[in-house]
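Final report, closing paragraph on structural work. Over the funding period we assembled a curated collection of sequence-structure pairs, and we close with a single example.
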Amino acid sequence: MSTSWGYGGAGGAVENMLRQAQEQQRRLAEFQQRRADLRVTGESPDGLVRVTVDGEMKVGDIELNARAMRLDSHTLAESLQAAIDAAYQAFNEHQQELLTEMLGGSELVRRAQEGTLTPEDWFRQFGVDLSDPTRGLRR
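Its predicted structure, as stored:
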């Protein structure tokens, strides 16, 4: 009496799961690196202030147009805040694009952001049905 549940089948399942985990790790590391490399710029509506935000979401470069120096402090502060807000918005948009690319679809990104993406749904993207206890054991 022979069965397909032998060591070779179980070993193959483990190898397959390890390969999938390594692929997910690689994709996550790539996402983290690309996010860390992001540099985005935001500009105030009046065009007098430009701000750059880096991959850690820290404000880096701040460029003031010479005309900005004629503004009163309140207006200058508003222009600066508007430029920072625009830079953060641009950063979030770029990050969203990276997530969409990594997850392979905007629906998965939306569900991940909402916290409704289950492990089963994530693995299903790679063709793995976690509800099947014999997955990878069959030949």
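The radius of gyration is 24 Å. The beta strands are 39-43, 49-54, 59-64. We thank the funder for supporting this effort.
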